[in-house]
Amino acid sequence: MDSSSILDSLGVEIIGVMAPVSICMFLVVLLTYSLSVTSDPQIRTAANLIYIENPSDSATVKLEGSLLNAIVFVVLVAAVTFILVLLFYYNFTNFLKHYMRFSAFFVLGTMGGAIFLSIIQHFSIPVDSVTCFILLFNFTILGTLSVFAGGIPIVVRQCYMVVMGIVVAAWFTKLPEWTTWFILVALALYDLVAVLAPGGPLKLLVELASSRDEELPAMVYEARPTVSSGNQGRNRGSSLRALVGGAAGGVSDSGSVELQAVRNHDANQLGRGNSHNLDYNAVEVRDIDNVDGHGNEDRDVVERSPVVAISSEHSTAVGTRGNIEDRDTVMDEEMSPLVELMGWGDNREEPRGLEESDNVVDISNRGIKLGLGDFIFYSVLVGRAAMYDLMTVYACYLAIISGLGCTLILLAVYNRALPALPISIMLGVVFYFLTRLLMEPFVVGMTTNLMMF
Amino acid sequence: MTVAAGIGYALVALGPSLSLFVSVISRKPFLILTVLSSTLLWLVSLIILSGLWRPFLPLKANVWWPYALLVVTSVCFQEGLRFLFWKVYKRLEDVLDSFADRISRPRLFLTDKLQIALAGGLGHGVAHAVFFCLSLLTPAFGPATFYVERCSKVPFFLISAIIALAFVTIHTFSMVIAFEGYAKGNRVDQVIVPVIHLAAGMLTLVNFASEGCVIGVPLLYLVASLTLVHCGKMVWQRLLETRNQSSASR
């Protein structure tokens, strides 16, 4: 075929987000299966503050206790997020960045280290403690560096985001069962309120960040589709938006906001804080998104749209086991249970040379950002489903992926920060219980008689 | 029996679909999305069916006609859903074509449509394999194995993996036949797909008899290879047609 079909590149951004989510969930399921650590009810964490679940309690006691646990957890998370908003409002950005580096170090070092140690124990891998310590230390330092420093390849940062998601999710799966479900549902509701309601902390963060044209210090996974130079790069990034817009009956083309390019701030704002997580992809971009074929000169610049990068803090209190019982180490992590399109609204800052008619050189990155909190809670749901059966794992996986797909489509339609948790978690919970109660007797009854359709 | 055996059983059921996925589907992200959505559709249909049949379960193990009824109703329901899937796909095709026009790219080629149909079928097949075979394989990773008395020559895991492989083939390629049949209005193709599905389902009922799987499984593979051959012939004819058309129009 001399001309390539549209099918070649449609949907690249969605797959760019779904692939790491799938990998994270798959590895968490593997970890859950291979380590199969039973949830130790003696640990008191922030998720267990009020009620420690005991398998022998009656259903109502468990219900009330788990509900209280979930409410307390959500209140804690909301409180910490408000603190984050305050800190950001008073321009403590550097403090936040250093704090996030510290938390990355802590997560990878201690929690990740504990998981490594249990893997080594479980599989009897012959490695001595000095080597193990050195390897772990290197691994942790690289992860800390990759969080905010520039000059690290994007692949490394993406891998470390996924690894951190796996580590935290593996720890969360140690929570008892009822508490886990209630916390997931409560967090989904909280996410919905915090991002969309007018007083919500995450919405405030978004508005602060976009009004200041600054990027929030946040742990987000950025999916960067590869934008190749030349004609092929033309329509790739915008295809999702234009497709959804067209399907929705015509988006206003003139002055419409499409999936856009991110401006790299560093070059222009020398005074600002330097670290942010944008790589330089110098790309020669002709008129991207020249959907209507206007060919205006000033439309050679990709239209931007207000960016939204969110971070919220979820405080995870994890008690260390072993000889230090009941010590609470409160660990905050900025995770953003949000998903948004990248793009900075900065028509005010005219980039040099961008108004030239052709041979536009722009430093552009395009893609979707998904917060680390989303990775973690999706994986927690799937990990908890893995403790029951593989059928529920698959059903929950499909539910979460389809919820994520719906959220991404809504993102393309509404073009603002959206909570990524509610739809997926609700679908996941519904599918889990439906599969467990309805499908299991049906399918198992048939297959053990070797009857299939 | 061990991890190796467990992985072996999983690959028996899903090996060809994995290679199909890696070679054809993973190249185009849209096809991956199609696989995921058709898997979801199959899962939803299975949940609805199990919801409908839940009050009647568990069925008695020695009477065969409730199972026959189960299979017939399930197959009819799923074929109805396949038609619905086709309708949705038609609308999607229109959206994609208008999108292609807007960005002045060529419309969907025949190979694109065939690939989308293949991806849809693969989604159904993979869902079948996972829910009917893989989900029961967890004990196979342990130290022992399991035999069913109805089919006592072969471990249960192996025979269910073999049956799943046949069904994966049937599902994958009958979707291509069905889509082409609906697109062209070809009655033969439209009817043959539900017939194949029903026949395959009914053939598994043969397993109900003692040692029935010795007859049932080879017949099932006969049906699967029939599907393959028919699909291959149909696709070849269509490709030749299109090539003759395009060379005639130049």
Automatic annotation (TrEMBL), chain A:
<dbReference type="InterPro" id="IPR006639">
    <property type="entry name" value="Preselin/SPP"/>
</dbReference>
<comment type="similarity">
    <text>Belongs to the peptidase A22A family.</text>
</comment>
<keyword id="KW-0645">Protease</keyword>
<keyword id="KW-0256">Endoplasmic reticulum</keyword>
<keyword id="KW-0472">Membrane</keyword>
<feature type="transmembrane region" description="Helical">
    <location>
        <begin position="178"/>
        <end position="197"/>
    </location>
</feature>
<protein>
    <recommendedName>
        <fullName>Presenilin</fullName>
        <ecNumber>3.4.23.-</ecNumber>
    </recommendedName>
</protein>
<feature type="transmembrane region" description="Helical">
    <location>
        <begin position="127"/>
        <end position="148"/>
    </location>
</feature>
<feature type="transmembrane region" description="Helical">
    <location>
        <begin position="67"/>
        <end position="90"/>
    </location>
</feature>
<dbReference type="InterPro" id="IPR001108">
    <property type="entry name" value="Peptidase_A22A"/>
</dbReference>
<keyword id="KW-0333">Golgi apparatus</keyword>
<keyword id="KW-0378">Hydrolase</keyword>
<keyword id="KW-0812">Transmembrane</keyword>
<dbReference type="InterPro" id="IPR042524">
    <property type="entry name" value="Presenilin_C"/>
</dbReference>
<keyword id="KW-1133">Transmembrane helix</keyword>
<feature type="transmembrane region" description="Helical">
    <location>
        <begin position="394"/>
        <end position="414"/>
    </location>
</feature>
<feature type="transmembrane region" description="Helical">
    <location>
        <begin position="102"/>
        <end position="121"/>
    </location>
</feature>
<comment type="subunit">
    <text>Homodimer.</text>
</comment>
<feature type="transmembrane region" description="Helical">
    <location>
        <begin position="420"/>
        <end position="439"/>
    </location>
</feature>
<dbReference type="Pfam" id="PF01080">
    <property type="entry name" value="Presenilin"/>
</dbReference>
<comment type="function">
    <text>Probable subunit of the gamma-secretase complex, an endoprotease complex that catalyzes the intramembrane cleavage of integral membrane proteins such as Notch receptors.</text>
</comment>
<keyword id="KW-0914">Notch signaling pathway</keyword>
UniProtKB/TrEMBL annotation, chain B:
<feature type="transmembrane region" description="Helical">
    <location>
        <begin position="6"/>
        <end position="25"/>
    </location>
</feature>
<feature type="transmembrane region" description="Helical">
    <location>
        <begin position="114"/>
        <end position="137"/>
    </location>
</feature>
<dbReference type="InterPro" id="IPR009294">
    <property type="entry name" value="Aph-1"/>
</dbReference>
<comment type="similarity">
    <text>Belongs to the APH-1 family.</text>
</comment>
<feature type="transmembrane region" description="Helical">
    <location>
        <begin position="30"/>
        <end position="52"/>
    </location>
</feature>
<keyword id="KW-1133">Transmembrane helix</keyword>
<dbReference type="Pfam" id="PF06105">
    <property type="entry name" value="Aph-1"/>
</dbReference>
<protein>
    <submittedName>
        <fullName>Gamma-secretase subunit APH1-like</fullName>
    </submittedName>
</protein>
<feature type="transmembrane region" description="Helical">
    <location>
        <begin position="157"/>
        <end position="179"/>
    </location>
</feature>
<feature type="transmembrane region" description="Helical">
    <location>
        <begin position="191"/>
        <end position="209"/>
    </location>
</feature>
<feature type="transmembrane region" description="Helical">
    <location>
        <begin position="64"/>
        <end position="85"/>
    </location>
</feature>
<feature type="transmembrane region" description="Helical">
    <location>
        <begin position="215"/>
        <end position="236"/>
    </location>
</feature>
<keyword id="KW-0472">Membrane</keyword>
<keyword id="KW-0914">Notch signaling pathway</keyword>
<keyword id="KW-0812">Transmembrane</keyword>
